[in-house]
Amino acid sequence: MKKISSAVYKETGYVALWVAILSVILQAVFLVCRRWTPVILLDNLVTAAFSVLNFFIMGLTVQKAVNKSEQQAASMMKVSQMLRNLMMAVVIVGGVLIHMQSKNGLLELLPNIIALFLPAFFPRFAIMVRYKMLKDESPERETENSYNDTDDEDDEDTDEDDEEDNEESEDIDSSDTDEDVDSSDIDDD
Fold first, then answer.
1. What number of other Cβ atoms are within 10 A of residue 185's Cβ?
2. 27 Cβ contact list (under 8 Å, min separation 6)
3. What is the torsional sign of CA 103, 107, 112, 117?
4. pLDDT digits (tens, 9 = 90+) for 49-108
5. How far is it, in rounded angstroms, from Cα 27 to Cα 44?
6. What pLDDT score does 152 carry?
7. What is the full DSSP assignment across the chain?
8. Segment 176-180 mean pLDDT
9. Degrees (nearest 5) of the Cα angle 82, 88, 89?
C-alpha cells in the first residue's frame, strides 16, 4: 500500500475543522429553537463523520488516479464517486428509516432529517470557503492580468509610435548616407 499524501491529510483536516464548526453552529440553532435532543447530536455526528470519511476517500482516489492514464483515472473517479454517494445515501436514508419507527409524524421527524441531511453538505461549504480564500489571496495575479490588459492597449499606441520612429530613423539614415557621400566627394578632390 502506498503512503498517503500529506496533502490528503492536510485537506481532510481542513474539511474536518469546518465540519466541526458548522456542526456546532447547527447544534446551537437546535438549542435556540428548543428542538435539541441527544439524538439530534448523534444524527449530526454520524453524518458529519461520514462526510469527512467521504472526503478522505475522495482524496485517496485522486492520489491513486494521478498515476493512471486519463481514461483509467476518469473511470476510477466515477466509480469512487458513485460508491461514496451510495455510502452517504445509506447513512442518511438509514437514519431517517430508524427515526420513522420511533416518531409519530413528519413534524417530529423533521429535526432529525435536518441533522442527518445538512452535515453531508458541510464539506462542500468548506471547499467553497477555501476556494474563495485562495482566490482572494492572489490579487497579484489579477493585478498582473489587468496590467497586461492595459499593456495591450498601450502596445497599439506604441506600435504607431514605433512606426513614426522608424520613419524618422529612415530619414536620419538617408541623410547620413548623403553626408557620407558628400564627405567622400570632398576627400576625393
1. 9
2. 36, 40, 41, 44
3. positive
4. 999 999 999 999 999 999 898 999 999 999 999 999 999 999 999 988 888 887 667 777
5. 8
6. 47
7. -PPPPHHHHHHHHHHHHHHHHHHHHHHHHHHHTT---HHHHHHHHHHHHHHHHHHHHHHHHHHHHTTS-HHHHHHHHHHHHHHHHHHHHHHHHHHHHHHHHH-SSHHHHHHHHHHHHGGGGHHHHHHHHHHHHHHHH-HHHHHHHHHHHHHHHHHHHHHHHHHHHHHHHHHHHHHHHHHHHHHHHHHH-
8. 47
9. 85
Statement: the pTM of the whole predicted model exceeds 0.70: no
The C-alpha cell 503512503 sits at 3
Q: Which residue from 46, 58, 53, 27 is spatially nearest to 94, judged by alpha carbons?
A: 46
Q: Which three three-digit cell numbers place residue 21?
A: 464548526
pLDDT single digits (tens) 93-102: 998 888 888 7
CA geometry: angle 162, 167, 173, nearest 5 deg: 120
Q: Please give the Cα distance from 131 to 135 (Å, whole number).
A: 6
Amino acid 23 reads S
